[in-house]
């Protein structure tokens, strides 16, 4: 196939790999399509969703409702369940033929496996776990032109080209690194679920979205693994990303762990249909399961109300919750960094403060 990742002028359009499980689209798809729409508008290009699966044509139109101009559907029985070899083969084949300029993938378990595999095959770069994307070339050139430390004229990559600016936490979350991929295409990025805002669904746009069915070729040599059975975890995972109210606990509950978690549950219930989250210290101590972790290496959430109980407010924790609509913090140390991002801060012992909060909410 005539594919050369360094021939950057032959690449067009913004693509989003859309993930489905059991024939259902994921929330991440809608977030990435919404973000991709903004990038495509800035770039003046098309936004294309690529959907792999089996008997998934009917769900493709929904992606149009969030902004996709076109959805390419690769439908094949061997794509019913995710396997690295089959999905990487099919996705790379389509990318090599159609040459998208940008390829966004959700940083889900599947995306984190598929993205690097495809990037290596396509001989391009991938920025993993991004929290911000920008494609405004003009702003970028202006920035470089005014920067005293950079000599724009001596730069060897073509400045007139649009580069996707991909921002992600680096050095343990202590700084945000903005990365570009100037010499190779497609620019590939995995994007953290829950970070990008989902657009309003539009039936009109969904109806206007073009669906293209693509022939899939998979030979036995392409398939090194086969899914025989999927055993689902009996326990229901906590839905932190979709929750409106989250009450999170930190190491501050250590003097009575069970009592602290119970108080958080009661407070979450008092607020409405809330769920309990935790800092990494709580997860690492085994006080709550891993799916409850909020933060850089946990979930990124933006609920209507986020309550932090006995959480110091380390940068890695804040990275996952600071965009919440309303933040309430309870900490016995009035200098704790969590108060810097809190709308309401209560300096006090959570074991004394939370029962009073619960009573006060019940009375209103
Ligand atoms: P601590 O920092 O120990 O804070 C406990 C707080 O409780 C203190 O402020 C104390 O004043 C207060 N307190 C104690 N007793 C009471 C009481 N009775 N009432 C009220 N307040 C009380 N952390 C995350 O949370 N999420 C992540 O995703 C994450 N990812 C990370 C990734 C990397 C690469 C690294 C290096 C770290 C990461 N961390 C993450 C860890 C992070 O740096 C902090 O160590 C962690 O968030 C601390 O958790 P904590 O606030 O519960 O505990």
TrEMBL record:
GO MF entry, a single one: electron transfer activity
Cofactor: FAD
GO BP term, example: fatty acid beta-oxidation using acyl-CoA dehydrogenase
Cofactor note: Binds 1 FAD per dimer.
Taxonomy, superkingdom: Bacteria
Keywords linked to the UniProt accession: FAD, Flavoprotein
The UniProt record lists the keyword Flavoprotein: yes
Residue ranges occupied by any Electron transfer flavoprotein alpha/beta-subunit N-terminal domain in the UniProt entry: 14-227
Binding positions (FAD): 251, 279-280, 293-297, 310-317, 331
Similarity comment text for this entry: Belongs to the ETF alpha-subunit/FixB family.
PANTHER family tied to this protein: ELECTRON TRANSFER FLAVOPROTEIN ALPHA, ELECTRON TRANSFER FLAVOPROTEIN SUBUNIT ALPHA, MITOCHONDRIAL
Protein name per the record: Acryloyl-CoA reductase electron transfer subunit beta
């Amino acid at each position: 196939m005539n594919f050369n990742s360094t021939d950057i002028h032959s690449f067009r359009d913004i693509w989003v790999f859309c993930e489905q499980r059991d024939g259902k689209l994921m929330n991440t798809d809608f977030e990435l399509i919404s973000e991709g729409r903004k990038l495509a508008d800035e770039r003046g290009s098309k936004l294309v969703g690529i959907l792999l699966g089996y008997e998934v044509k009917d769900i493709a139109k929904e992606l149009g409702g969030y902004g996709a101009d076109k959805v390419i559907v690769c439908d094949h029985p061997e794509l019913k369940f995710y396997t690295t070899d089959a999905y990487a083969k099919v996705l790379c084949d389509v990318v090599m033929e159609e040459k998208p300029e940008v390829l966004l993938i959700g940083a889900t378990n599947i995306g984190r496996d598929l993205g690097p595999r495809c990037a290596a095959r396509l001989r391009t770069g991938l920025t993993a776990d991004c929290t911000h994307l920008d494609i405004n070339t003009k702003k970028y050139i202006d920035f470089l032109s005014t920067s005293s430390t950079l000599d724009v004229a001596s730069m060897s990559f073509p400045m007139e080209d649009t580069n996707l600016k991909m921002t992600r936490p680096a050095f343990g979350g202590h700084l945000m690194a903005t990365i570009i991929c100037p010499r190779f295409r497609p620019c590939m990025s995995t994007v953290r679920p829950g970070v990008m805002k989902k657009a309003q669904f539009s039936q009109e746009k969904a109806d206007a979205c073009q669906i293209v069915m693509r022939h899939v070729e998979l030979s036995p040599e392409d398939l090194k693994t086969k899914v025989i059975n999927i055993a689902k975890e009996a326990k229901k995972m906590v839905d932190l990303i979709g929750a409106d109210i989250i009450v999170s606990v930190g190491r501050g509950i250590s003097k009575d762990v069970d009592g602290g978690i119970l108080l958080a549950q009661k407070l979450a219930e008092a607020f409405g249909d809330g769920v309990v989250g935790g800092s990494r210290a709580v997860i690492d101590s085994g006080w709550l399961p891993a799916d409850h972790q909020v933060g850089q290496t946990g979930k990124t959430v933006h609920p209507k109300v986020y309550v932090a109980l006995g959480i110091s407010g380390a940068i890695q924790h804040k990275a996952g919750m600071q965009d919440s609509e309303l933040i309430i913090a309870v900490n016995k140390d009035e200098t704790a960094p969590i108060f810097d991002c809190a709308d309401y801060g209560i300096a006090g012992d959570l074991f004394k403060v939370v029962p009073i909060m619960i009573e006060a909410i019940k009375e209103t």
